[in-house]
């Protein structure tokens, strides 16, 4: 996970930990970096509020995949805000579903309190139908 950082190193480290936990299907690790009142805005799908609700959504998504890779292409952090460009990959059976994602994270006191991802939902749906 390469990162270009202009300040915000602590915030970037929290986001890096979140991504590592997602890739490892480490639900305790995910919850450890989510704020209690996090707002997760998965832009084409909708908003989810609160640590337990966000964790449940992630669990449903990640449990469908045999493997998960979130490749960070670029990442910039300034103060409490981290923005990254990622290629989120989910292995389902013998196929990889790949989605280009732009993410914005706000980190306070070592926890992600706002997480907003932008991606093309139709790209995901097309690939998902082929993955079975």
Structure report:
The chain is α/β, with parallel strands linked by helices and 132 residues long. It has a single domain (4-131), classed as Nuclear Transport Factor 2, Chain: A, CATH 3.10.450.50. It contains four helices and seven strands; from the N terminus they run βααββαββββα. Strands 1-4-5-6-7-2-3 form a seven-stranded mixed sheet. α1 runs antiparallel to α2. The protein is globular.
Number of helices: 4
SSE order: EHHEEHEEEEH
Q: For the record, what CATH class applies?
A: Alpha Beta
Number of domains: 1
From the N-terminal CA to the C-terminal CA, the straight-line distance is 30 Å
Give the biggest sheet: 7 strands, mixed
Helix content: 25-40%
Oligomer: single chain
Rg over CA atoms: 14 Å
| Number of separate strands | 7
Shape: globular
Poorly predicted runs are: 1-6
Which class best fits the helix and strand makeup?
alpha/beta
Taken as a percent bin, the fraction of beta residues is: over 45%
Order of strands, main sheet, comes to: 1-4-5-6-7-2-3
CATH architecture: Roll
CATH topology: Nuclear Transport Factor 2, Chain: A
Average pLDDT level: 91
